[in-house]
Write a structure and sequence with these properties.
Layout: H1 3-23, H2 25-34, H3 38-59, H4 69-93, H5 100-111, H6 127-151, H7 162-166, H8 178-203, H9 207-218, H10 237-250, H11 254-263, H12 272-296, H13 300-315, H14 330-342, H15 355-373, E1 382-383, E2 386-387, H16 390-416, H17 421-432, H18 454-468, H19 472-475, H20 480-483
Antiparallel strand pairs: 1-2
Length: 485
C-alpha cells in the first residue's frame, strides 16, 4: 500500500466530512426552532469541522490510485472512522459536555446502528442532540446497506443475496446502472422512514419522538428519545406493532426490495435467506409468548406483542426494549441470548451473523456429515438453486471463526477492566453483533453503558466497529501483507 493510496483515502474521507458538517446544521435548526441555546454549538461545530475538512481535502488532492481491493479496504475503514469521530464532536461541544470517551462511544454506537448509550436523562436532553443521535443511526443504516451492496461483494466478503442479481440477465442488474440503483436505494430507505414516522404518529406517538424513533427503527439503530426506550409505550400495542413491522423490513435485503419495487420482480422475494430470517423470527416470538402465557400468566396477546417486539428488536439488532425481559425467566433469557447472534439478511441494516451465513454453514455441515458415510461423494454447497463458490464458503467459515475468537478476546479484555462475567460476556457479544442492550443489571434492557470504566467503553467501541464492518474488513488492514507491495 503506497502513499498515493493513503493520501487518496484521506482525501475522500475529508470530502465526506464536509457533507457531515452540513448535516450538523439540521440539529442546529431544530434547537433554534425549540429555543435551545445548543444551536450555537452545532453551528460552530459545523463551521469548524467543515473548514478543517476542506483544508485537509485541498491538501490531499493528487493522483487517484488504481481501484483495487486493498484501496477498497483502506477507504472503508477511513470513512467509518471519519464518521465516528465527526459524529462525536457535537456531544462534546453541546450542553451535555460529554468527555472524549463517552462522546466517541455514543457516536460509534449511532453510526454502527448498535444503540447502546452512555447518556442519562434522554427525556430532558436538548432536542438537537436527540435528532443528531437519530441522524447518526439514519446515516449509519444507509451506510451499512451501501457498504454491503456496493463494496463488500467486490472484496469477496459480502453476502450471497447478490447471487440473484449477479446471475440474472444484464438488464436486471441494478449494478449496471449505478446511479439509478443508488437513487432507488436512497428513495426506498427514505420512504420507509417517512412511512414509519406517519405510522407512529397515527398510533399515538408525538411527532418529534416519532421522527426520531422512525429513523432509528428503519436503521435498526435502537436509539430512543427516552431513557426507558419503548417501555414508555408498553401499554400501546399499536406503537409496538408498528415498530415490529418496520424493524422486520429493516432486516430484509434492500437489493431484493429494489428489484421488487423498481423492477416488479416477485421472484426476488423467494431469496432463501428471507425464509430463514422470517422463520426464526416467528419461531422465537411464538415460543417466548407461549412461555410467558404459561409461566407468568400474561394474557396471550400481550405476551405475543412484547415477545415479538423484543425478539424482533434483538434479532434485527435494533436494540429497543418494551419490557425488562431479564425478568421473564430462564427460557426467555436463553432465547434472547441466542437471538443476539442471529441478525437479519445480507444487504440490510442489521448486524449479527446473518441468515445467509447460517444457510451456508448448515449446507457445509450437512455435506461434511454425508461424506463421513460416503467419503467419495462430491456434493456442491447450494444456496437455493445456485452453487456457492468455494471462496464464499471459505469467507463464511472465516467470518464465523473470527467472530468467535474476537468474542473470546473481548470477554477477557472487558473482564480485565473489572466487569462481572455476565456484563463482560453479553457486553462483548452485543457490541460485536451491534444489538445494543446486553443482560444483567448494568447493561440490560433497563440499564445503559454509562457506568462502565472508560477502558471498557473503548473496547466496546472497537468491537462495534469491527462488527459493523464485518470483522474481516478491519482485521485485514493490520496484516503485514496488506501494507506490502
Amino acid at each position: 500500500m503506497n502513499r498515493i493510496a493513503v493520501r487518496a483515502a484521506i482525501h475522500v474521507a475529508a470530502v465526506f466530512a464536509i457533507y457531515l458538517s452540513v448535516a450538523m446544521l439540521i440539529p442546529a435548526a431544530v434547537d433554534l426552532y425549540y429555543g435551545n441555546d445548543d444551536w450555537r454549538s452545532f453551528a460552530f461545530t459545523a463551521m469548524f469541522m467543515g473548514g478543517l475538512a476542506l483544508a485537509i481535502a485541498l491538501a490531499t488532492q493528487g493522483r487517484v490510485p488504481p481501484a483495487n481491493t486493498r484501496f477498497g479496504f483502506l477507504l472503508v475503514n477511513f470513512l467509518w472512522i471519519t464518521l465516528a469521530i465527526a459524529g462525536a464532536v457535537p456531544f462534546m461541544t453541546s450542553s451535555l459536555h460529554l468527555g472524549i470517551t463517552d462522546a466517541f462511544f455514543e457516536s460509534v454506537s449511532g453510526v454502527t446502528t448498535t444503540g447502546s448509550t452512555v447518556i442519562n436523562g434522554l427525556d430532558s436532553a436538548p432536542p438537537g442532540i436527540l435528532i443528531w443521535r437519530s441522524l447518526l443511526s439514519f446515516m449509519g443504516g444507509l451506510g451499512v446497506i451501501a457498504l454491503g451492496l456496493f463494496l463488500l461483494p467486490f472484496l469477496n466478503i459480502g453476502g450471497v443475496s447478490y447471487f440473484k442479481i449477479e446471475s440474472s440477465d444484464i438488464e436486471d442488474r441494478p449494478f449496471e446502472r449505478f446511479q439509478t440503483f443508488t437513487v432507488s436505494l436512497i428513495g426506498i430507505y427514505t420512504v420507509l422512514v417517512v412511512a414509519c414516522t406517519i405510522s407512529y404518529v397515527a398510533a399515538g406517538m408525538d411527532g418529534f419522538h416519532a421522527i426520531n424513533h422512525a429513523m432509528s427503527t428503519v436503521a435498526t439503530g435502537g436509539f430512543s428519545t427516552h431513557d426507558t426506550s419503548f417501555l414508555r409505550y408498553a401499554d400501546n400495542p399499536a406503537i409496538l406493532w408498528t415498530g415490529i413491522v418496520f424493524m422486520f423490513i429493516g432486516g430484509l435485503p434492500f437489493s431484493i426490495m429494489i428489484l421488487f419495487a423498481v423492477r416488479g420482480r416477485l421472484d426476488a422475494l423467494r431469496d432463501p435467506q428471507i425464509r430463514v430470517y422470517a422463520g426464526y423470527c416467528i419461531v422465537f416470538a411464538i415460543a417466548v409468548a407461549i412461555y410467558l402465557r404459561v409461566n407468568m400468566g400474561m394474557p396471550f396477546f400481550t405476551a405475543l406483542t412484547h415477545s415479538t417486539f423484543n425478539l424482533m428488536s434483538i434479532i434485527t439488532t435494533a436494540g429497543f426494549a418494551s419490557d425488562d425481559y431479564s425478568l421473564w425467566g430462564p427460557f426467555a433469557i436463553g432465547c434472547i441470548f441466542v437471538a443476539t447472534f442471529l441478525g437479519g439478511c445480507s444487504g440490510s441494516t442489521t448486524g449479527g451473523i446473518k441468515a445467509y451465513r447460517f444457510l451456508i454453514l448448515f449446507e457445509l455441515l450437512s455435506n461434511g456429515l454425508r461424506r463421513l458415510i460416503y467419503p467419495n461423494t462430491v456434493t456442491p454447497v447450494r444456496y437455493g438453486d445456485r452453487t456457492v463458490a468455494p471462496e464464499m464458503q471459505s469467507a463464511v467459515v472465516l467470518f464465523i471463526a473470527s467472530f468467535m475468537v474476537l468474542w473470546a478476546i473481548t470477554i477477557v479484555l472487558l473482564s480485565a477492566t473489572g466487569l462481572d462475567f455476565i456484563t463482560a460476556v453479553t457486553g462483548s457479544l452485543t457490541s460485536l453483533t451491534n444489538v445494543g442492550p446486553g443482560l444483567g443489571p448494568i447493561i440490560g434492557p433497563v440499564g445503559n453503558f454509562s457506568s462502565l470504566p472508560d477502558a471498557a467503553k473503548w473496547i466496546c467501541s472497537a468491537a462495534m466497529l469491527l462488527g459493523r464492518l464485518e470483522i474481516l474488513a478491519v482485521l485485514v488492514i493490520f496484516t503485514p501483507t496488506f501494507w506490502g507491495r
